Amino acid sequence: MATMESLIGLVNRIQRACTALGDYGGDEQAFSSLWDALPSVAVVGGQSSGKSSVLESIVGRDFLPRGSGIVTRRPLVLQLQQTEEGEQEYAEFGHLPQRRFTDFSLVRKEIQDETDRVTGKTKQISPVPIHLSIYSPNVVNLTLIDLPGLTKVAVEGQPESIVQDIENMVQSYVEKPNCIILAISPANQDIATSDAIKLAREVDPSGERTFGVLTKLDLMDKGTNALDVLEGRSYRLQRPWVGIVNRSQADINKNVDMMAARQKEREYFATSPDYSHLASKMGSEYLAKLLSRHLESVIRARIPSITSLINKSIDELESELGHLGRPIAVDAGAQLYTILELCRAFDRIFKEHLDGGRPGGDRIYGVFDNQLPAALRKLPFDRHLSLQNVRKIVSEADGYQPHLIAPEQGYRRLIEGSLSYFRGPAEASVDAVHFVLKELVRKSIAECQELKRFPTLQSAIAGAANEALEKFREESKKTALRLVDMEAAYLTVEFFRRLPQEVEKTGNPGGNPRENTAAGNPGGNPRENTAAAATVDRYSEAHYRRIGSNVSSYINMVTETLKNTIPKAVVYCQVKEAKQNLLNYFYTQIGKKEGKQLADLLDEDPALMERRQQYAKRLELYKKARDEIDSVSWAR
Ligand code: GDP
Ligand code: MG
């Protein structure tokens, strides 16, 4: 049956892909780590406890770097894949997928070089794993992670913190509930002092996922044995202890072949007076099979939770990719289409702001309803139409010949002078609406999700919109000021015709000042009239007060008119234009652009592009993993 082997093979493939994507566990991941969900076997133990030796004898090959000090400085993920009898043995690195290593001394060298590539020659450690797959008829399917040995002191050239750094790194692997701990302790040392057991006890107190391995049985003092440990009396684990005899340093120096070493180990247990009764459950070959079987069953049990994690991640990634949007087309036609679509998306939001689907448009009405009337109220007509000023202006208008009947020129000057005050509020209304519109453009750009990807297009649209608003503002200002100028150009005759006459009290209401000159009583007030009606002083204070108050009511009338017409001009020239033609000019410009210029506009934020690629790759991995898992679980 292919299924059993393929379960470990499946996890191996997923692990390799995880590393390629930078997922090797840890908490800084944006998405839940698939790596963390996969069961794995981590080898832990003190320095020189025999970790490398155990790994090599499980593989049946010499391939790990040796030396004093901390040799293993990056996790080594060792994936063993059993091949057909008689096939060539070879190794492959995750970072060198094209190259097959058949010479295992080169594997050793590549591990060293690749370690240095990431950690530098400074002998630092790094949590980024090296992936090594070994394909051989002499291995069982198994994945093991070799970790730096736990150490007590930093050696020369290594920072003091390295002791703690190693412990933290090892800890980060073994604390994961999916990690199977292969705890290596040397038999020639009291088990109570074993670093591996100390760590395993911390993270797996019930001993459920810890496999105890006892090395160096051959180095125990004569007359002593490790039966108390191997039979679980010294330290209890849920899993059986396995005793190992690796090559001694002398064997290594003599280049004793791994196959010969395995043979020697078998003989050791078969003939040992202490351990022969346990012989079938001792040794590195047995350990490899035991771990392989265990790993398979753990993976099988985990498949439902891995599947659900994968499904959840696929959902997350798909929705995230949905937010990021599709990659951009390459041909100019499609690019133009994309740009126009994006402009329309922005324009839609802008219109919603104006029309009230989104907030902000109401501030334009605020300008007409509050700002403009308030500004009009504040105009200094009191000062302009003070008695003193009226007298001054009327007298100046009269020149050497004082007016005889009514001060026509004086009236005109007073009114024209007053009307010029309206220019300020008219311009201010235009500007206020301009700033509201500008702010709405800014908001709409920020709220346009589709545009987020394209900072260049974003600023091009903003630039074009603001330029258009600027033109609308100019036009609007001209129109609003024209309204004011029109008031000055032609006065409302009716108003003056309806003015009460200064001779009103003598009974001539509604008369025309000019016609009334015959009655000859302008400038009088009732009291004066009774006193000396015919000889009333044309230039008395009351006369000027009346002129001032007439002008003031005329100005009030104009104020009412402009209060209504300025908003009409502003809406017509600015708001309506912005709503209908904001990007018109931009559209004609875009239509003339060549392919390269269009592509430049769709220049994406590189960080975003990178993110989309990452997510897409990850999504592909997860989907592939899901398909593979489906196929193995159905093959059962
Ligand atoms: P590591 O630091 O944990 O990787 O330990 P190594 O595998 O490099 O082993 C350290 C030393 O102990 C080497 O010289 C090995 O030859 C020796 N050694 C390891 N296991 C055994 C064993 O079972 N018997 C003997 N005699 N020597 C061993
Ligand atoms: Mg080692």
Automatic annotation (TrEMBL):
It is found in: Cytoplasm, Cytoskeleton, Phragmoplast. GO terms for biological process: cell division. PROSITE patterns: G_DYNAMIN_1 (PS00410), G_DYNAMIN_2 (PS51718), GED (PS51388). Pfam families: Dynamin_M, Dynamin_N, GED. The keyword Cell division applies. Residues 544-636 form the GED domain. Keywords: Cell cycle, Cell division, Cytoplasm, Cytoskeleton, GTP-binding, Hydrolase, Microtubule, Motor protein, Nucleotide-binding. Residues 503-529 are annotated as: Disordered. Gene3D superfamilies: Dynamin, middle domain, P-loop containing nucleotide triphosphate hydrolases. SUPFAM superfamilies: P-loop containing nucleoside triphosphate hydrolases (SSF52540). PANTHER family: DYNAMIN (PTHR11566), PHRAGMOPLASTIN DRP1E (PTHR11566:SF151). Forms homodimer and may homooligomerize and heterooligomerize to form the phragmoplastin complex. Binds to PHIP1. This is Dynamin-related protein 1E. It comes from Sesamum indicum (Oriental sesame). The gene is LOC105167305.
